[in-house]
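ok so for the tutorial part 2 we go from a plain amino acid sequence to predicted structure tokens. step 1 is just haveing the sequence, like this:
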Amino acid sequence: MKNLYLNNRFFYLLFVVGILYVMAFFVPVLLWLGGGFLFLIFLILFVDILLLFVGKFRISASRKLPAKFSNGDENTIGFQIHNRYFFPVNIRVIDEVPFQFQIRDFDIRKKLAPNGNTLFEYSLFPKARGEYQFGKLNLYAASPLGLVSRRYTFQKEETLPCYPSFIHLQKYEMMALQNEFLLGGIRKIRKIGHTMEFEQIRDYVQGDDIRSINWKATSKQNRLMVNQFQDEKSQRIYMLIDKGRTMQMPFEGLSLLDYSVNAVMALSHIILKKGDRAGMMTFSTKTENKVAADSKAGQLRKISEALYNIRTDFFESDFSRLYQDIKFSISQRSLILLFSNFETRDALNRQMKYLRAIARNHLLVVVFFRNPELLRMINGRPEDMQGIYDKIIAEKFEFEKNLIIQELRKYGIYTVYTLPENLSIDVISKYLEVKARGIL
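step 2 — the prediction. this is what the tokens look like for a chain of 440 residues:
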């Protein structure tokens, strides 16, 4: 009988009986009424137990988990329940979700039709990569009488890995193919010049760039002919992720490292779709998780596995070691996107000589972050003197970030300065801009 649970309805009825017995001190006839009511309650209780416990497996259920979690996204968990009772059943579902979610009040209540199947779903939002362990799936079935419940337990413990965000890869792919991004309006990327690979000579069509006219072919064919170009492919794109302590800063439950990991995953997908070679590495006191730039099948899976379980180590990042490793491991000119975070010019100046050295041989793009909390202070209206001081300090920090951008541009280093939630879109946009302008 360890699966037998008394419901609140049973105790409410006993409370009514208790009131009748108390009132019987003043109205003796209520003593017989209370006794009869108590006998009726236990008779219904016995019938309720028989209805629920005759037969071994009157309820069956199974949890439907995805193959893996997508970090920072909505992930759907489902479970299917089959009711074999000949009467409708009230079900209470308590799923033992992983401790990382800190859900202490999980409780789903549904009514199941007799001899019917029902599918339930709920959503989870993981905020960290790694492994998530589900416990048992507990169901409490109650008949229409509702005095007792029978517990059913299903599913053994299951472990589910959480990978960098992959749910929205298709959405980013569609955006990249159209070369436009909906971010406060449509942003179109303009192609400049002819820094592309020659494809063929074809007839001139009204609207073609007259600078593409091939005059030799025109004189031979006695009609206007133009050169047609295609985008350069198989270019090497490396994404470097800083694992130092500055990347531990959290926004909306995700650290800057998590946002960077999700952006690298999305950007790698676009790079491979565009025919270029994607590679990555992480660094702090040393470089780790190296994936050489390639465009073969399975490259995205390699990058995903490398990003799966990286963590910040809370050390000061060693950019001199990073420069040495880039010099010896990346021999050809490549586009390098460096995900880091510089809060002050002093922090940048300590690393500037290494960034300039990297930029001499490669096209370097430094990706760092705007602080949404500071923006709220800057755009808000202070209500007291303390609020005025806070706004002035926030404006000073924002001005410092703009000086950092100017300092990097002075040495030919490109930048992406963005809010954490817009990171994926902005780095993909910068990559497409580099491709369109042919500056690699």
